[in-house]
Amino acid sequence: MDVVNLNHGSGFVYGIGAREMSVAQRVNTLIDAALLTARREQPERDYLGASRLGEPCCRRLAYEITHTPPDYGHDLDGAMLRVFEAGHRFEALSIEWLRAAGFDLRTQRRDGSQFGFAAAGGRLRGHIDGVILAGPDIGVPWPALWEHKALNARSWNDILKRGLRIAKPLYFAQVQIYMAYMEIGVTLFSALNKDSQALHHELVSFDPAEAQSLSDKAVDILRAVETCELPPRIAAASDFYLCRLCPFARRCWEQ
Ligand code: SF4
Description:
Helix content is about 45%, strand content about 15%. It has helices at about 15-40, 60-65, 80-100, 155-160, 165, 170-180, 210-225, 240-245, 250-255; strands spanning about 50, 105, 115-120, 125, 130, 145-150, 185-195, 200-205. Strand 3 (about 115-120) and strand 4 (about 125) form a beta hairpin. The chain is globular.
């Protein structure tokens, strides 16, 4: 509905269209504030998360694990937190669907904790989405590590077209380091298209050389952090495409 003039005296009163916008903004502000408050109440990670090891810039990872504040305007916001939360809900759906289809997918230990591992005295840790112990005969040598991502249509189609290793090297690295430390030789990577709920599944084999290089990278970063050094930048100039997207770019290049 268009904005209408409901002026009965002095001043201008906005009609339903404008009022709806204002209400939407107010509600969303409250939701995002609640999400941010809940997030702040969670304990901060004091370790290098294995899921981040595929990030190409070691310096960025060092900033992250030392809880260095990002540049102004680059803090995690409500919109990102809603995306994370939605990802968890989509993952729960995929778990139900796989189990209904006969896959023995385990996502928790008996005490309810998540499966995972710790290395380097606990300074490198990973938490896996699950392990499929057994299932229908689809040509997979069980057990298989299970990793799930809920993606927008563009990313989902890219994985279909080019495969995980090329389309999403960050996720490829994540499953490689998980397989190494969980001692599982294969991953079933499930991707859910958030626009259509279409599912794609890719089998990823363990690549020992890739996993070793990621493990070495983790050791280098942890050593640098321990000695209060910054790992080298990934580029020679700040206009490198990854630096332009980096939430620490100003700090990294101007300080
Ligand atoms: S700005 Fe570039 S070099 Fe610096 S931390 Fe970010 S990605 Fe790495």
